[in-house]
Specification:
12 helices, homodimer, Ribosomal Protein S8, Chain: A, domain 1, two-stranded antiparallel sheet, 11 strands, 350 residues
Chain lengths: 350, 350
């Protein structure tokens, strides 16, 4: 099934309003999911809508909650997410970081009592569109073992950084610090596919290609061996100690028992125009990106990509040609539409 | 040859003063080298002294230079390193970052016209000892190809972050974003050893175990595939666009032709006590570290380490038992001692 992006956005937004979200909250949340689909990050797209809505129905995800600054440290903010919708809380906090960075140069916010924030690039794009470097990280329910370990101690702990640049291609990192995002395993399980060896191990510590065996009792691996584990551990430390989030080991799951997740976010913005003319900064960034992209490729490689470049191309294609949803996801949306009184097929088919 | 740390420090300091450094500059520079040896990072220790001194004699490394703030953006500083000794410039800038972070919460400095800053943990320790998160990164002469590429576009672009914690073990990352540090290849070449396959490729792009073949015309690989390349690219962007350093591709080498390097540094400090009681922060960090260290290990693994933990143990052992130098390095120091009128053997042998 192929849908127009705006139709899918409109459907998702209406369902979220019907589920109790405010109009802007519903718009931001729905746009974040649809943008993920448009960028080819289906694992963070509308396939997750049902899980979020179930948590709202269960009363463990507070629609309408707004972030509250608990301690205002000028360039550092300690924020309580009040168990709100993760995407909405993160977006509101990033708006404050961008405003504060405009006044002070830098702003970093630690946010506690949060829930899954979806695709982190959504927030860093907000900063980058305002000519700032945006960054976002979160911890998440335990799924990944430390380097040399066999017990899940970390979430997939995503990291996003967007750096504006002139010339058409920006630096736009949004990655799990596990070797693969857990969402890719969830999608594979939902669609009945096996996964490549190396993504994770089963409960006994043996390599597995069965996403269910990895998700249920097994662990994922961090990217990049000891060095990638170090990046993942740093995110955990910041999300727990600076943001006062729950440790990944104690965090509630989106898919497990019905309780608030307690996720910690660290979000921030850097207004480089304080020390470098913004046009100069972005021109230099564009030139550096172009030089890397035009460097000699390894045998068999057609093109060198910036982080997020393929996603940006998919986004533009989806804008023109629509979003393809699998039958499983389309059926789920149809059923959610019935539950929330928003017809799916008639509203959305291209 | 085994030397007392203090003897090696005293010798190195005297040689540096004889080479024209001021007393505090010589102390900081010498301590950074000796600390690297003590931490087992021999590749960044006194084996590099000769190369630094040669550059001073060639007039391409400015002893006595002080960093100058070009643009004071409150929480962002644009600094000119005036081609000074990298370790000294970075230390002086970190001192300013810590002072400013104490006033503002966060301070990030971009520093241009710099030279190799040695072991980056030296500066981040300075921040951590003052109950702040310290971070440091630099770009460096081209040696590493992008993911999918075959041309050296990046340096080994090191990243260091230190997070204070109670309980004896801190988080103390100091890594090259290449799979291995170039210094390890330089040391292997100096000592006539081959290196494991996978560290890099030769000029034709073929995997090589000959450090000379990798260093001369070949390229290193980034750690962690596409994700590690993304971290390396981010460091390059920040060091070029925010710090206004030379791109790695245009940067002077410590070992190549006699010209200033033009390295860019990004240094910073975060005073977490602005939003979280420092004792609480460090207690939570210590508990999180302890929980990860005590988690179940994979078969065949004895212990899970924090980044920098092994280095800290080596440091304590070196403090008690002295520093072991290879014959090649000891001979080089003897010869440098003769050149600068500071006898090596009598001053240093344990």
């Amino acid at each position: 099934m192929i849908l127009q992006a705006n139709s899918l956005l409109s459907f998702t937004e209406k369902v979220c309003i019907s589920a109790g979200m405010g109009p802007r909250e519903a718009h931001v949340f729905a746009e974040s999911l649809v943008h993920a689909n448009m960028r080819g990050m289906d694992s963070h797209g509308v396939m997750r809508l049902g899980a979020y809505l179930r948590r709202i129905r269960e009363g463990v995800l507070a629609v309408g909650a707004e972030p509250e600054i608990i301690t205002d440290g000028d360039t550092l903010l300690s924020v309580d997410g009040h168990n709100g919708v993760g995407v909405w809380i993160a977006q509101r906090v990033m708006e404050q970081c961008v405003e504060r960075a405009g006044e002070k140069g830098v702003c970093i916010a630690g946010v506690k009592n949060c829930n899954h924030f979806g695709c982190a690039a959504y927030f860093t794009h907000f900063a980058a569109e305002r000519h700032m470097i945006g960054f976002a990280m979160a911890n998440s329910p335990k799924a990944v073992s430390p380097y040399g370990g066999a017990e899940a101690m970390f979430g997939t702990n995503p990291l996003a950084v967007t750096v504006p640049a002139k010339g058409g291609v920006i630096y736009d990192l949004d990655m799990a610090t596990s070797l693969v995002a857990q969402g890719k395993l969830i999608l594979a399980r939902k669609e009945g596919r096996s996964v490549p060896s190396g993504w994770g191990v089963d409960a006994e510590g043996n390599p597995s290609t069965d996403p269910a065996a990895i998700l249920d009792g097994g662990t994922l691996s961090a990217f990049g061996g000891a060095k990638g584990y170090a990046i993942m551990m740093l995110i955990e430390l910041l999300c727990v100690c600076l943001a006062q989030g729950m440790p990944s080991t104690a965090m509630g799951s989106m898919y497990g028992q019905a309780r608030p997740q307690g996720t910690g976010f660290v979000l921030g913005a850097v207004d480089y125009s304080r020390i470098v003319d913004a046009d100069t900064f972005e021109t230099m960034a564009g030139e550096l990106i172009a030089s890397v992209k035009s460097s000699r490729t390894a045998p068999g490689v057609e093109e060198i990509y910036m982080p997020g470049e393929l996603e940006a191309r998919r986004f533009e294609r989806a804008r023109r040609e629509g979003i393809e949803l699998s039958d499983v996801v389309a059926a789920e949306l149809t059923s959610l539409g019935e539950m929330y009184g928003v017809p799916f097929t008639s509203a959305c088919a291209l």
